[in-house]
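Entry 14. Ran structure prediction on the chain below.
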Amino acid sequence: MPPPADLDRLSHAELKDLVLQLLEKVSELQRIVAAQRDEIARLKGGSGRPNIKPSGMEQATEPPLDRAGNPRRPRGSTRSKLLIDEEQIIKLAASPSGSRFKGYTSFVVQDLVMRPHVVEFRCERWQTPDGEMITAPLPAGFHGHFGPHLRRFVLALYHQGQVTMLRLLSLLREFGILISKRQIVRLLNEDKQGFLDEARDVLRAGLSDASWISVDDTGARHKAQNGVCTQIGNDYFAWFGTTGVKNRLNFLELLRAGYTDYVINDAALAYMRRRKLAGPTIALLAAHVDKHFSDRMAWQAHLDRLALVSLEVTRDPFQVATEGAVWGSIKAHALLRDTVIVSDDAGQFAVSTHALCWVHAERLVHELDTFTEDQRSAQKRVRDQIWEFYRDLKIYRRDPSAQHKAKLGARFDEIFQQQTGSVMLDRLLKRLHANRAELLLVLDRPEIPLHTNGSENDIRCHVTRRKISGGTRSDAGRDCRDAFLGLAKTCAKLRIAFWDYLGSRLAVPGNPMIPYLPEMIAAQLRPP
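Output, structure tokens:
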């Protein structure tokens, strides 16, 4: 914007208009500087601090509760839910003379018994006629010198209770357990392949049968390096995966759910075309006789034979081809068959059928800087329109119809194509209108959520773990942390006590059997 020739000759209205333009320009430059600061911090291995204001749109668009004349919901009997372990008769020290005995009054007390319990197993040893020694095995659930009850307690406090390692060590020692920090680490990380496999199968079950998933990510520390933890889940499962990078290829590899192969099929080739990979390169990959590669090394060797090398260009052919081969593997394993991915508009999540979070979209309008009463009035008017539209979208999800769908589509265009008189607000509305298909996908798929609140709630447990314990130092520790946090969240969504789940998997005597979680997820997601 060129400066005026003479400021002194400007009228009051012209000066006011100039100040407003400068304020808008300063605000825009501040956002650019903040984005550049975050990018520099990321390149240095750090992460920028987000400044997120609460929207309130989801709560405000819920119908008000009708409290008039409705009695308070009774809490229900506590005793009916309890199993009495012990009964004691409490006698009166002395009753007045002439009193008559009138029975008992019941008073139920819940308590917790915490004490060390040391067992010495004397295992029989027999020598066979040929000289071989046979020793009786320990009972089920006993491995090493710590029993299943203690192992369950350690896992529950660390992963669900978010207790630090040192506090857990101090607590156990005060209980009278002779244990070291190294032994606690072993209880947390060693011999956990069964849990890791179940967490992986939870993801596979969700990606195989879910009609939608929501995703989010947050910073993570591993081996003193900054990375990212990605959450994937819906109403019935949650899964976490920590990696060192944050891009679309990384997200696709997580969606592969533990499979390591690369596949060139119709889905892979279609993906490459959507990502604008050069036609001759696609033809070269499609014409080659080799279509399936067991791991990254085999895939890399194949690209080397084809002389397809990584180039410093906007669309790296090596990167896009690898993304396509991973996408082909996802489809080859029947994952994400008709699944909608709901995200906050982060670029790496824009794969497959994609929908956007309305709360994040409205937050952009909410956080927009305004400098005059007219701008604030226009901002409030647009926010009111969005909130009312969001409320009607929630009504549509409960009772979709073709007529209602057409009206909502027309209203969307009216809201996001209007001219408000505020340059920055009009520019933002135009940007949101460009995301029309992803914001209005709910009209075609009313089962998907309108927001990613579920993912943000799920990933808080990982943020809490990061704040109280920092990062992980070994791959086993990272994998176990992610797996157990996901299993605990999945149990909560399936209305299973994580304590009972651990007891079932660790063969704690008397613990109820908990079915394999992926089977329960599949039963919930598959139509009857």
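The longest helix spans residues 12-43. Will compare against last week's run tomorrow.
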